[in-house]
Amino acid sequence: MRVLVTGAGGMLGHELVDTFGDHEVTGTTHAELDVTDRAAVIECFDALRPDVVLHGAAWTAVDACEADPDRAWAVNALGTRHITEAARRHRTRVVYFSTDYVFDGTKDSPYVEWDEPAPRSVYGRSKLAGERECDDDATILRISWVCGFHGANMVKTILRLAAEHPTLSFVDDQIGHPTFAADAAVMTRRLVEDHRTGLFHVTNQGAVSWFEFARAVLDAAGQDPRRVEPIATHDLRPARPAPRPANSVLDNAALRLSGVDLLPDFRVPLATVVERLQAG
Questions:
Q1: Of 41, 131, 202, 278, which one's alpha carbon is 20 to 30 angstroms from that of 35?
Q2: What is the CATH number of the domain that holds 176?
């Protein structure tokens, strides 16, 4: 297959390029392909004629999106329109990566793919708009709390803070399923190879709060998890500009009901990532 990966400089993009490495893969960073530039996107597709595009390019700075909504809409929504248009010209299959932020977080049980989205943040609204720019034969993966070896993410942040402070505070009233980028890339490949279209929630298993996740990171690093203390979201100082869903738990219902093996508990890849990070 000829595979195009947008956002290849990001955490997930790195893993997608590696996971599809036995195919003819082209990874483009933001500097190499600005998805807000329609002409550039069309030119890229005309040159590469990919069989599948793994569209990971996005502006994921949740709080910054609140301050610059035009940029969020341009990258996450209009950029996806450009990808879809170019893909249509070459009959390229589109795989789009979305987010748990499409939900408002008020449901008292995990969200399934058929729940009605109700995003509260600019980021969530712009990513939902990106979903709606996709054609019916696209594959949409909603992922949440993405972590991994590459790029900035919460595992690295927690380890850094633990090296700088005797105690850490993380919220215990936001819950979700961590998603490790390498595992998400493996599931992406399976969905592509199985020619599955439609919407899928793709996360690792194990619902936790950020407080519990931070403790799990320290435990994986051989440190005392009791150094992490709980705090309520409304007590954070300074307050975060973008509202966070209190419940971000995504039930991988479409995979589960299709008989597809789910990704393992997040503690399995967490141990691997922490080991790699500590090895330098």
A1: 202
A2: 3.40.50.720
Taking the C-alpha atoms of residue 122 and residue 120, their distance in angstroms, rounded to an integer, is 7
Q: In the chain, how many domains are there?
A: 1
Report the distance separating Cα 249 and Cα 270, nearest Å.
18
Structural domain for 41, as ranges: 2-278
C-alpha to C-alpha distance for 49 and 31, rounded to whole angstroms? 20
pTM for the whole structure: 0.97
User: 103 phi and psi, to 5 degrees?
Assistant: -105, 155
Structure tokens at 170: 């993380």
Q: What is the tens place of the pLDDT at every residue in 3-41?
A: 999 999 999 999 999 999 999 999 999 999 999 999 999
Q: Compute and round to an integer the Cα radius of gyration of the chain.
A: 18
Span 244-265, pLDDT tens digits: 999 999 999 999 999 999 999 9
Is 96 in the active site? no
* Termini Cα distance of the chain: 34
Query: Closest Cα to residue 93, out of 21, 1, 13?
Result: 1
Catalytic-labelled residue, pool 96, 101, 111, 123: 123
